[in-house]
Design brief:
five-stranded antiparallel β-sheet; 23 helices; alpha+beta; six-stranded mixed β-sheet; about 800 residues
Length: about 800
């Protein structure tokens, strides 16, 4: 048994009354055997007496006996764990205590007390051991009586400056530590005395005698002490200093608040004031935020401009420490810490200010002069406001009410805080200077080019509104789906500016993500509605907040077109229904149920399905094409749009631009987006499908059929990989699905393999171990296919895999 195991055992209580006594002589031979020993080890007295103790132990433990005998002779006994052998050789773990028991004639004897470890209640500890536990503990411990007067305490409490234990005897907590909230602490003690329920982890902040000039944090736990009759006689409590942990939590809370509060707008002055508001009183008692004049104007800083006061705050109402008002020039003496910080870009900390020194300021028009003593300021930090390697200004923090000076941790926290605010200041500054570049940003969020595919011929036209920022939230997209299908999407985010552009980008990304799940249009809009509503709640968008970057109230129409059968399914959320130009030139608007706008709540979305003849053109648009000035009624707007769509043009691109030019001025009051898609149908020579019986023996036949079809299409080089994909997908369907199975091949710009079955569970890609006999099917499919997935249909599901025809397999 190791020393640690012995130490752990000694923590428990050893009940002598339940132990089995055994008497050994000086040579370790059993001379006395009891019924308890017989019960424990199954040896009778006649058999056990005369046996060597080593015969009762395992071989490993027997080898330790000489060492234990030596320790018993030197220490007068021994306590620990041993493993003995019951009759028949079964081992049993025992708690053992050996004490000297010399005979009356002076011959050496040893009394051995045995207790089974699994049943023993523990090990007894003497008063001396208990006293060591509490007196040597680094945790402050004290006991008060029912009058809450100290009757005992350990030396560790002296670290809090309350003096030796004798000085604390008979005193109440408030007399021992007057700088703490004794009333609240004693209320916890009374609660424990009354209820008997311990209080664990009670935290409080105050000033102890050992550190009267700074706040310290402690955690206390209280436990009632009862006498033998169960009557309370006092309270036992512990004290642990958690000041560092408390300060770390405060720092994190301050940074979290800064992340939420600073930079809620693109106004530079407001951002500077938000920085000042956050830092007081959590970090400083008085703070000033000064920015370069060029930064406030949105110009490129040169480092030689004057500083202007952009924000300030104080723990005292009215900011009486200020010698400069917000908006005025903050002129500092040459060589002063703020100017040095501005020039060198490094922070400065002055632990103690010269009480008679000036406030570093001079030449303030209409301002006042005052010494640090008159202002009550005694410690300061200066932190540069830097972003992207450019110094935009300086922040100066002072201590006044709190007596402890700024330390290194305070400086690190201030630098983190100011760096976060610097990013927001930098954003606001660059917003003014790069407004035109923001328009390029919005256009970059729209598709640079629409994906090439065979389902539709497509063209799009976008025209932003002529607002102050030139930004809006209209968008469009074409998303290739599985099975040669495509999704056509047009949407509109309310508002204009960078916020609307950002919301549009998030919405378009979300639609693309949902489209990858191959959901029906009404389900895509349902998930999108949930996402927008949840985002608005998390961002706190509401009537009292700036929610210009929220997508709540957005409109969207989502259309899925299948070129195999010409079926088109669509759903709308607060958005105009698409128009359809039939092959003969007739224009009609789809009778599409209007769902609620995204994020506002309402009834579930509904979809409609219609068959489109080849050569029909879908026209998805935003409401900017319908409304124009006082003639913004829906019917009038539709009539104008119908007339514009009826005009023929040499190409679809020209027709799209002609419609926008006819209905939207060069600088419209609202964004305009138009997406036109002329439908195509895949020919019979591009699609092949077969029914597959639910029989594992038919998998080989499916492979052969696939190989013949690829030969007919001239795609022999894809035979091996396609047969493997077909084999795995059909086998998976036969093994797990119920009902009919259908195999379909589509030759488009890619080679698509689809397996239909009636199951409602999607397969999952596994990564089998080398010893596994199966589970590699979908892993192989994923290796040979460019992409694969599952989509659900009313009759079940489709597992599909797609190979690129422009990149033949090796």
């Amino acid at each position: 048994m190791g020393a640690q195991e012995e130490h752990d055992t000694a923590r428990h209580r050893f009940d002598v009354a339940d132990a089995a006594p055994v008497l050994l002589d000086a040579q370790g031979v059993v001379r006395g055997w009891t019924r308890e020993a017989e019960r424990l080890l199954d040896y009778g007295a006649a058999e056990a007496v005369g046996m060597a103790a080593a015969a009762l132990l395992t071989a490993e433990e027997a080898r330790r006996l000489p060492e234990l005998a030596e320790r018993c002779r030197n220490d007068g006994g021994w306590a620990g764990l041993l493993t003995a052998l019951r009759r028949g050789g079964r081992p049993v773990r025992l708690m053992v205590r050996i004490t000297a028991a010399d005979d009356f004639d002076g011959s050496a004897r040893w009394l051995v007390l045995l207790s089974e470890l699994a049943e023993a209640p523990g090990w007894d500890m003497s008063r001396r051991v208990l006293e060591q536990l509490v007196t040597r503990s680094p945790i402050g411990i004290a006991v008060v009586d029912t009058d809450l007067r100290c009757v005992w305490s350990n030396p560790a409490l002296e670290q809090f400056g309350s003096g030796p234990a004798q000085r604390r005897l008979g005193l109440r907590f408030g007399e021992i530590q007057p700088g703490l909230d004794a009333e609240s602490i004693e209320a916890q003690m009374r609660r424990v005395l009354e209820t008997g329920e311990p209080v664990v982890g009670y935290e409080h902040v105050g000033r102890v005698r050992s550190a009267p000039h700074r706040e310290t944090a402690h955690t206390m736990s209280f436990t009632r002490i009862d006498d033998d009759r169960g009557h309370p006689v006092g309270v036992y409590y512990t004290v642990v200093d958690i000041t560092e942990r408390h300060r770390a939590r405060q720092r994190l809370a301050l940074l979290d608040r800064a992340g939420e509060y600073i930079g809620r707008s693109l106004d530079i002055r407001r951002t500077a004031q938000e920085l000042a508001d956050v830092a007081v009183p959590a970090l400083a008692d008085y703070i000033t935020v000064d920015l370069l004049e060029s930064v406030l104007r949105g110009a490129e800083p040169t480092g030689q401009e004057t500083l202007l006061r952009a924000g300030q705050q104080s723990v005292n109402e009215g900011v009486p420490e200020a010698v400069v008002e917000v908006g005025e020039v903050a002129a500092y003496r040459p060589g002063s810490p703020p100017l040095g910080c501005l020039a060198e870009g490094g922070s400065v900390r002055e632990e103690r200010l010269d009480p008679l020194g000036a406030e570093w300021a001079t030449g303030i028009a209409g301002g006042r002069r005052a010494t640090f003593m008159e202002l009550g300021l005694h410690s300061a930090m200066v932190v540069p406001i830097r972003a992207r390697g450019v110094t935009l200004g300086v922040t100066t923090l002072f201590r006044r009410r709190r007596q402890e000076p700024f330390d290194e941790d305070d400086l690190n926290l201030a630098e983190d805080l100011v760096s976060r605010a610097a990013v927001c200041v930098d954003n606001a500054w660059r917003y003014t200077r790069e407004r035109e570049a923001a328009l390029v940003l919005q256009r970059s969020l729209l598709p640079h080019r629409l994906s090439e595919q065979d389902a539709v011929e497509v063209s799009a036209c976008y025209r932003p509104a002529d607002e102050l920022t030139g930004l809006g939230g209209d968008w469009y997209d074409l998303i290739p789906l599985s099975g040669a299908r495509v999704a056509l999407v047009v949407g509109e985010v309310p508002g204009h500016g960078i916020g609307a552009a950002a919301a549009m980008g998030r919405l378009r990304t979300a639609v693309r993500t949902l489209a990858a799940l191959d959901l029906p249009p009404e389900e895509v809009l349902g998930h999108l509605d949930d996402l927008v509503a949840r985002s608005a709640r998390e961002e706190g968008a509401g009537p009292e907040t700036d929610d210009t970057d929220s997508a709540r109230g957005s409109g969207c129409v989502y259309v899925v077109y299948d070129p195999v059968d010409g079926q088109c399914t669509m759903a709308a959320a607060g958005h105009p229904a698409p128009a359809v130009i039939l092959p003969d030139g007739t224009v009609a608007f789809v009778d599409l149920p209007q769902g609620p706008s995204l994020g506002v709540g309402g009834p579930p979305f509904e979809s409609v399905e219609l068959a489109l003849a080849e050569g029909s053109t879908l026209a998805l648009h935003t409401d900017g094409l319908l409304a124009r000035g006082e003639e913004g009624a829906v019917d009038a707007g539709r009539n104008r749009l119908r007339q514009a769509l009826e005009r023929s043009a040499a190409s679809l691109d020209l027709r799209c631009r002609t419609v926008v030019d006819a209905l939207a001025p060069a600088r419209p009051h609202d964004d305009v987006a138009l997406l036109m898609a002329r439908t195509r149908l895949l020919g019979p020579d591009q699609v092949a499908d077969w029914d597959v019986p639910v029989d594992p023996a038919r998998v080989a036949e499916a492979r052969k059929t696939t190989s013949r079809q690829l030969t007919d299409w001239g795609l022999e080089e894809f035979a091996f990989t396609t047969e493997l994909i077909v084999s795995e997908l059909v086998t998976n369907a036969i093994r797990h699905a119920v009902g009919p199975i259908r195999l379909r091949l589509i030759r488009e710009r890619s080679l698509i393999c689809e397996v239909f079955d009636s199951g409602d569970t999607a397969p999952h890609l596994r990564h089998p171990r080398t010893t596994d006999e199966g589970g590699r099917g979908l892993l192989l499919v994923s290796q040979f296919a460019r992409r694969w997935g599952t989509r659900f249909v009313p009759e079940g599901k489709v597992i599909w895999a797609e190979q690129s025809l422009t990149d033949p397999p090796d």
